[in-house]
Structures are given as structure tokens and as C-alpha cells.
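Risk mitigation, structural track. In case the binding assays with nicotinamide-adenine-dinucleotide fail to produce interpretable data, a predicted complex structure has been prepared as a fallback.
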Amino acid sequence: MTYRVAVNGFGRIGRDYLRCVLERGLFDDGVDVVAVNDVWDAATLTHLLRYDSAFGRLNHEVETVDGGIVVNGRHIDLSRLSDFCDCGKPGRRGDVT
Ligand SMILES: NC(=O)c1ccc[n+]([C@@H]2O[C@H](COP(=O)([O-])OP(=O)(O)OC[C@H]3O[C@@H](n4cnc5c(N)ncnc54)[C@H](O)[C@@H]3O)[C@@H](O)[C@H]2O)c1
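Fallback model:
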């Protein structure tokens, strides 16, 4: 079974979660991170995901495309909602937030 995951707050914990999913090979096997919500813009969040002063450069392709974040060719929807629970789009939130 694949879990569709939305990450609310893409700071230290949110980014480390995605990094952990990627580095354990779960991104292609069981954990599909479909959405990120944060108050920052896509370019800033992409930069912070790619370059990490504690863990080093991410060993995966990451870029900003159409206002979202593309990791290893897969688009992660980005929203900038202050209250993610009110986004009104259950699909965007995935199975787990
Ligand atoms: N890092 C830890 O070791 C630790 C331990 C226990 C608890 N916490 C708590 O967990 C939470 C996250 O910690 P962190 O270290 O990732 O913090 P962080 O400051 O690195 O990241 C928080 C992120 O949330 C974003 N944000 C702020 N308001 C938001 C909103 N309304 N909606 C969506 N995103 C929003 C910020 O832009 C930032 O990217 C905090 O509440 C923190 O107190 C952290």
C-alpha cells in the first residue's frame, strides 16, 4: 500500500521528513509525498531542501516548477495556507498530513 502524505510546515521537521523518505528509498516504495503547505514560496523552500547546513546537499534532483516543488521528476503540490485544515480539498491533503 502507498500512503499519500501532505506535509504541513516545511521547516526543519518537514524537510527532514521528506529527506528521510527519499534517502530510505520510500519515495518510490510506499510513501508518496503529494503536497507541502508552508507560508514561504516555492523557490525558497526548494533552496532550503537542496542545501542543508546540518545534513549537506540533497542527493536527489529538486527544482521549482510551476509554483510547486519537483523531486526526482515528481511534482509536489505547494500551497501557502495559514490554516491547512481549511483548504477544502481533501485530495490535496493526501491520506496522512
Ligand atoms: N525541531 C525540533 O526538535 C522540535 C521538537 C519538538 C517540537 N517541535 C515543534 O514542531 C514544530 C515544527 O518544528 P520545526 O523545527 O520544523 O520548526 P521550523 O521553524 O524549522 O519550521 C516551521 C515551518 O512552518 C512554517 N509555518 C509557519 N506558520 C505556518 C502555517 N500557519 N502554516 C504552515 N506552515 C507554517 C514556517 O514557515 C516554517 O517553514 C514547531 O511547532 C516546534 O516548536 C520541534
